[in-house]
Write the structure tokens for this entry.
Amino acid sequence: MCRCPRLIARSSSIAALTTTLALASCATSNLIGPSNQLEVNNAVDDFQFQVSNLDRIVQTLTYTWECTGQQATIDISESITVGSAILTIRDDAGTTVHQEDLAQDNDTDTAVGAAGNWIIEVKFEGTSGTVNFRVQKKT
């Protein structure tokens, strides 16, 4: 008695289930919406970011910010209960001058970099809570 057809049928069922689960996990990604009250103030030498009511958000936001100096101060106020929010700042030359998890609530300065258009990236990885930070040209 050959069990090959039954084995093939089971393998097909397992493949279909695996595909369904993979698609379902993609469909459950949470993005920032109106209920999160995202506020961004992107002015020369002064960048402010605030978002609240996060519920396991998985998203990356990227902004171009003009910094006329070579260094910036970072002030962080957060209440992250789950996940992380990685802040990465790159100078005009594309060099990373700062990177940290905002859940650490660490007020600090960036490294010295090239003045001009800096990139500010916030990567939410299953983040719940509130994130608020400010980046200003260091005087």
